[in-house]
Specification:
There is one protein chain. The chain is mainly alpha-helical. It is built from eight helices and no strands. The termini are far apart.
Length: about 230
Amino acid sequence: MSAPAAGAPVAAREERFLAHHFRGMAEQLETSTLGIWLFLGSEVLFFGGLFAAYAVARALHPELFRYGRHLLDWRLGALNTAVLVTSSLSVAWAVRAAQLGDRRGLVTSLSVTLGLALTFLGVKAVEWTHKLEHGVRWGAAYRPAADLLAGTPGLGAAPDHPGAFFSLYYLMTGLHGVHVLAGVGLLAWLVARARRGDFGPGYFVPVEVVALYWHLVDAIWIFLFPLFYLA
C-alpha cells in the first residue's frame, strides 16, 4: 500500500499501519496488547522456574550465598537498579508522548531509554570482566576467588564448592542481559520509526508493546538485585 502524502491528515497517514485482518486501529491495539501480555506471562513462568531453582539452592546450601554475595559489588547492582527504574519512567513517558502526538518528546524519551539500556549493559560488562579476571567463573573451580575475601570479619572459611552460587548468578543475570539486549534492538527500531513520524494518537501499538516488555525487564532485575547482592 502506498503511503499518503506528508500533508495528508494524521489519521489518514496512520491508517496505513492498520493490518488487513483488523476492523480498526482500536481493535489492533487491543489484540496486540493481549498478545504481549500472553508473551509476558510466559516470560514470568520462564523466570519463575529460575527463581525456584534459586530458592532450592539457597535452602540447601545457605553458606554458598552468604559467601558468594561478598564477591559482588552491591554499588554496581544499585547503580544498575537506578538505571533501569529511570528507564521505565522514560519509556512510560514515550507511550504518553506517542498518544499526544508529541513527536519530539517521543524521540527524546525513547533515546533516553535506549541510552539507559546501553548504560546497564556497560555496567554489567565491567562487573563481569572484573569477576572473570579474578577467577570467578561458571562452575566449581573458584578457589582463586577465596583470596579476595581472606580475612573478611565473620565470613569464615570458603565453602568447598562456591561455584554453585555463581552458576546461578551468571545464568540468571546473563539471561536477563539477553532480554536487555533484545530491548536495545527494539528501542533502536522505535527511535528510527519515531524520527520518521510513524507514531501518533491513532497508532502507537509498537511503542506500547515494547514499553510493556521493558517494564518486565525492569521488574525482573528488581528481584535479582536483592537476591544476589543483598540477601
